[in-house]
Amino acid sequence: MSFLLRFIKVWLLSFRGPRDKSQLLNSLIHLRVWPNDLDLNVHVNNGRYLTLMDLGRMDLMFRSGAMGLWLMKGMQPLVALSMCRHFKALKVFQSFELRTRVLGWDAKWIYFEQRFESHGQLYALGVVKGLMTTKNGPLPSADLMTTLGIHEPSPVLPAYVIEWLASERKAIDMLKAETHA
């Protein structure tokens, strides 16, 4: 099944069910592994996980109303950093759930956790750092959250995300030092 067909499925299913505030920060979609998701080892290709993670964040955007901002107000969601840790291989025709949740936000960035689970077991864990941009630059996270009806402060980010972000800053500093050497 191509990404486009999965995207249409996610979009259509986003209209189902009642809306409540918890849906603004959480998403659950049910998927299946298809032959075109596989690599030569006959399990889901590592790059495909990142593509599937896009679907989870899109579902969140549809359900929260952020997609309307994207389409009607000329805003764009952008990913700056992502990682995916694989624990077990998803195999052909296996069904699984992709759970996406907003972990928190700071002045500029929104942080997502994305879990690939099947029969109660964790197969992969992804984390994404992203933002919403306008033609004038990044939209402050607080403005986006207020527009979506979220007025509480950000939850505290988990320690593993804080450490991941610290390693990102260290890598950027090292690259800058190499460039100026």
Secondary structure elements and pairings:
Blueprint: H1 3-13, E1 26-32, H2 46-64, H3 66-72, E2 76-86, E3 95-105, E4 110-118, E5 121-134, E6 137-138, H4 141-147, H5 159-180
Antiparallel strand pairs: 1-3, 2-5, 3-4, 4-5, 5-6
Helix pairs in contact: 1-2
Features:
181 residues; single chain
Can you tell me about this structure?
By secondary structure, the protein is an alpha+beta fold. Strands 1, 2, 3, 4, 5 and 6 form a six-stranded antiparallel β-sheet that branches. A hairpin with a 2-residue loop joins strand 5 and strand 6. Helix 1 packs parallel to helix 2. It is globular, with a radius of gyration of 17 Å.
Sequence stretches where pLDDT stays below 50 over 5 or more residues: none
In angstroms, what separates the terminal alpha carbons?
48 Å
How many DSSP helices?
5
Shape: globular
Average residue pLDDT? 89
The structure class reads alpha+beta
Helix content: 25-40%
Oligomer: single chain
- Classify the beta-strand content into a percent band: 25-35%
From the alpha-carbon coordinates, what is the Rg to the nearest angstrom? 17 Å
Largest sheet: number of strands, sense, barrel closure: 6 strands, antiparallel
Order of helices and strands: HEHHEEEEEHH
Question: What's the number of extended β-strand segments?
Answer: 6
Nutshell version of this structure?
With 181 residues, the protein is α+β, with helices and mostly antiparallel strands. Helices cover 36% and strands 30% of the residues. The protein has helices at 3-13, 46-64, 66-72, 141-147, 159-180; strands spanning 26-32, 76-86, 95-105, 110-118, 121-134, 137-138.
